[in-house]
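Bench notes, bay 3.
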Amino acid sequence: MTTPEQQIQSVQVESGEKPLAGKVFLLTGASRGIGAAAALELCRKGATVIGPHRDPGKNSRASEVVDKAAQFGGKLISLVADVTKAEDRKCLMHYVKENFGSIDGIILNHAGGLEKGADEKYSLNVNGYAKLALFEEAQKSGTLKDQALILDIPSMWSKFCFTGVKQMDVYEPVAKGKKLGEKLLREAIRLYNDQAEEGCHIKFGMVCGQGVAETITMRLLDRIYPQEVAEIKKAAHNGKLPEITEMALAVADMAKGNFRDEEVTFVGSPQIKDNEMPTALPMYSPQTRYVDSLLKFDDTRSFGFYRISDKDTLRHFSYFELMSLTLGTGSLSVTEQHTEGHFVPEFGLSILPGHKIVAAAVDLASVHLEDNDPDFIIPRLKRIQGIEFKIPALPGDNLSFTQTTDRLSVNIGDMEATTVSGVEFEPRNLEDPKNMTPDRLIEAGAQTLGVAYIHSRGIDDVLPLFSRVGPLEYHREVFPGELLEMEAVLRGESNKQFQGDVIFRVDDEVVAKAFGYACQLRARTSIERGIRMMRRGLK
């Protein structure tokens, strides 16, 4: 690494009110492409940017970026450092410490990975291991402020490279390297935050592009895979790939720090963010909305995200309510309190959510199993063959439960309202930990599919009412603090109905699968009439 005196090129920051004034960021790969555009946008918003690049032969190109920053009074410091080399990382952090004391964050702009002669090991190193090493060097040198940010800039393909998203062969090694970088950073930052003193917290975020126009990578892929790139363009927002300037704006916006831990900003694909979700799912209250944000990947696939909280572990019914049912003589009386919070008051509906009925059914099946097999310690739900909702339950209804060998019926009077079949459990020897109840997981999948359909079709005057789902598989519990990723795939639609499947993941690990969701679409204005028609047989 050359000395700072030889490489530093800087100008003074323009005075005035700017959202990032006084902040200092280290941004890798700032001499060209997305890195250069992001550096300029950060400077334009008042930040000081330290922009290392690894090739001394590109100094003239880096100087051009510095000169552009100077035109609007920005301070961009360009120096040569190869972050894949331990000595360069050490010298880089020494320079930061000596000249700034500490910085507000590190922004990790990925290398392309498709350079001539590059192999899979190259991408794993430059896009994966080097990022972790740079973060660890920053920790060791004490150059990160107590509330610093780490921003990663992967691609859409790398973000979902271990899901059903198909990779282009030549890009797959690059995607794996970038995914490795995300994984290593996420784990290291979580560990740091767990061990940090009070008041010290590093926030991790990502900016993902859906194939960014003008970049060398995209031009190369367009030559090799013209048909695939054409499909990507078609699926992108407004039918065109995002531009480098859009990526830069997204990076600068996240640099303000106004985002949740591990939040992802997607550029180039339609996205519903946390503050927009109440509009996308207006029927649900904040307590019963299980989707924080949603990305539309293409015409059939969307990804929903939800941060699990303690409220998701609470049981819906009291022990005494359920015990009266286990005796086989009582019934569960539906009250307004049972329906509270499901639909917001504006919709004027007090319905017992179907997933709460499923919760009662699963709890009863569990108790029945324990009564008949005392050695089956703390049952853990493994599978449900199918769930069918026939009649909605309203306040004042009395629900009775009839259980056979492989089927549990929920009845309102003489009418079968819901059936839950093929409930299977497996033993767990440890004490039952607090986890998201399986019924809420089912509801989260239904909400993701519903908002994905409404969003992808551009409609906003209907409500999705799910009537069937199954089979469902549970691989492990999910716990408060974990980020649930739901891959929702639409499988078909006809006559105001649609079907779909949902794969649930936490950190790329599949935790559950739900197949065969079936949904009817009802106009908001006719929802009450539809419910009355469904219940007509009760009168």
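Next record in the batch:
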Amino acid sequence: MRKVYTLQLSDFYPSATLPQAMGSLLGYVFQNESIKKNFEVCRTFWENETFDQIIKEIEGPDVLLCSCYVWNWDRTYQVIKFIRKHYPSCLIIIGGPEPEYTSNWLCAHPEVDLLIPYYGESVLESVLVESLMECEYSKLPGVITKKSMPQQFPKPNFDKMVSPFLNGFFENLLNNKRSETTSIRAVFESNRGCPFSCTFCDVGASIYTKVNRFELQKCFDELEWMVQNGVDAIDVADANFGILSRDEDIVNKMIELKKKYNWQGRFLPTWSKVKGDRVLRIAKNIIHNKLDSVFGLSLQSLSPEVLFKIKRKNAFNLSDLSAIISDLSENNVPVYTEVIFPLPGETIDSFLSGIHSVLDMKNVFDKFQVNQLSKYNNAEIASVDQTKKFGIEWKKINGFTRHYYGDNSKDIIAVKTEDINKEDVFEGLFYVKCFIIPLYFYGTVRSIADHLLKFHGLLRSQFFKTLYKNLESEPWFIKFKNAQRDHYFSAIEGKVQFGQILTKDPLDFFPEFSIAHQFYLKSPLFDKLEEIYPEHRQAIIFSKNSLWTNKADEVFQNIKFGQKEETWRFVDNRVMDKDSYFRELYISGRFDQRWRKKLIERVKS
């Protein structure tokens, strides 16, 4: 029997994600009798294994299959190079979104024998069968070799797809998981494909435009398996959850399973860009039944020009969204949005204008997130043509631009385009991540900004423009901004690990807003606000007393709004060690209002 080893490494320590791609591939190809007779899978590496752990457990491999993503590529490539050196006859096959789907890329990585792009099930089957015969892989449809590029990319027979949840494959992995892995995530697919063509996404390729649905009962059975086996989080891989009417049936099934098994995990969809009413109805159902705690609508950009250039269609405009947020808030559903920066066509002025338009919505999101544009090698925007057309400069960084754990992570991000230089990219990121998000979306001055709008007609955007202009002359603020600039530019040059260290654990990296939020809580910010708005001192005192700073206290404060003075009570009993406090706020509480004291009430006279 020929020994097969497979790799689809996670990087979410201490959690690991069951390897959906590898499970689907193996389930498909091992229906072939010839493959079943001649190959055996000796080991699947799917957790946060180190290079040393992996190579110790590989013995005499004949085939190495690797599913490669930006977060696991460096470790995977280490293993590939080791296998090529020590087992030169091993057939090394890779797939996944990370490698560029070209012969040139394969030549630049000579240790790899074959590259299978896009859908891999039927192509891998033909490769393994061919490896038992003449090994003439260049003649096979869908296989990239160092000397040949295929003209066709076959899709699998979707009726032949075998569920790794239901055929025992994942059960075996769970029974033999490592002790370091303390929580499990799973990827759920009720369909494959996406009818949209967003250029920043590698699912935007034309081969994926048809949405192929999996049989509904199979989907129900997979979900029941996940719930029964204690999966902590279900990441829904459907590119547009809510686009199909049957998605409501899927959520109703999840609610039924949650009640039946007392499941405490989370069900995390990637929401559809269209079918707005259905999406909102499903979102309410999910959150009211505690399958998730927040509803996210990704906008990606607020600029029509940018949206056109990236072939993006949004389901809602800001006016629609304000009404939606109001409706969802009345139903106790928190809402967040996110944008990508810098995208083609985005200038510093258009970016800040978009941010200010969000702040000036009648009803504002509970949370706002900025994701730096990452390079996914097979996304249209990553192509040589688009990179040149839009003047994008990419940089490889150590780590990610969001919260992560460990020193194995790598990413490639855009640091400039023809429309915006590196310094302005930093300025945009700093303004949002280190100013707007910690001050408004983490509540530091949210009640002040809302108070000035409600009672004095001052737009939130104008409040923040004024505050920022005043802070720019403050030595303590200048020092902080310069420290963030130094870190950012050192990180994009690969000199330091991207991310902020807040806890005792040197491998626990937080995003910029976390350290900025802590900075403002300890800064003379409120003194500065009283200097700028002395007539609104009462609102500033109210805002300061509203914040949870990891102290158990009860404060009574006389506050005068208008002509009437009232006594307000601010109470919180939460106290925890500093590391837990940071994780509570910036990981667990990223999409809610844990920054706010538990009880804020007017005391009746």
